[in-house]
Amino acid sequence: MAAAPIARSFLQVAATEEVATPLRVVQIEGLIIKHCKEFSPALVTGQLLGLDVGSVLEVTNCFPFPIREEDEEVEADGANYQLEMMRCLREVNVDNNTVGWYQSTLMGSFQTVELIETFMNYQENIRRCVCIIYDPSRSSQGVLAFKALKLSDSFMELYKTNNFTGEKLREKNLSWVDIFEEIPIKVSNSALISAFMTGLEDDTPVTQCDYDRLQLSTNPFLERSAEFLIECMDDLSMEQQKFQFYHRNLSRQQSQQQTWLQKRRAENMARKAAGDEPLPEEDPSNPIFKPIPEPSRLDSFLITNQISNFCNQINGVAGQNFSRLYLMKALHEN
């Protein structure tokens, strides 16, 4: 007779087995869009609340952070505000588990060091946190400009060491495309909201969003995207100049070291001939043997990410605009 299996409690299973399910989908509602559009073009941010269920991160609620001046005690007031809001949500039986934060952006410019530092601060307590990026300017073109981002594990390990030299990046096989991971987004509203929106629908099958998609005037958006792209190219050129300056200094130092080493070897040969002890061939007190620190490549990686984002935006908008123009040409001919 087979022995009966030993029943284990949930805490025992959680203590002995850790299920590392990869995050595949972020499910959100439309509250983020409302907050970002109301304050556009000002940039806003807020807290994401929800549940981490298997491979799906469900964002069930959110609340905005207050906009404060720079001279106020932002950090202390912001922390107290978050705690008070989460306490109030808990009292009314609303999900108050932090799963990340959201922020609006202008023309898709969000790849910054501040974003990475915020990620690392969240990651200390929340292993699978995400950042929802919403771009109201892109949404005005008839596109739902949502992105769910997280830092890659390999980048976070390297960021903790704060060593972004070329040798370390080659060792980790890390490039600029390996900083962020984009997770697919699923927009889902509650049954009550869906029923309310269905009641608001007109009899006509055409909505305002459909008209927005047919707008032919995309020159302002393309011009601003091109301006931001040019600024990023200038920033990348400045970063390259830093590396060129570093390599020139390194080459000059190596030349000085070789000259000093040749003199020291000639001096040692003379000392050996005189029967004296040779001097060491390295002198740590000499400034020419002090290592020159290599500039960090993190800024250049982020700028390259930003350039790629702007190029994709321009490519997508230009392709859609050509399709509209050909459509209007066919309608005029008919």
Question: Would you write up a description of this structure?
Answer:
- This protein is α/β, with parallel strands linked by helices.
- It has 11 helices and 8 strands.
- The chain has an 8-stranded mixed sheet with strand order 7-6-5-4-2-3-1-8.
- A hairpin with a 2-residue loop joins strand 2 and strand 3 (56-64).
- Helix 10 (219-273) runs antiparallel to helix 11.
- The longest helix is centred in the C-terminal third of the chain and has 55 residues, at 219-273.
- Residues 264-275 have a biased composition (Basic and acidic residues).
- It is found in: Cytoplasm.
- Keywords: Cytoplasm, Initiation factor, Protein biosynthesis.
Give a short overview.
It contains eleven helices and eight strands.
Helicity level, as a percent range? 40-55%
Count of DSSP-assigned helices = 11
Task: Give the CA-CA distance, first to last residue.
Answer: 83 Å
Can you tell me the overall shape?
Answer: elongated
Q: Which descriptors apply to this entry?
A:
Eukaryotic translation initiation factor 3 subunit H; 11 helices; 334 residues; translation initiation factor activity; protein biosynthesis; JAMM_MPN+_peptidase_M67A; 8 strands; 51% helix; disordered N terminus; 8-stranded mixed sheet
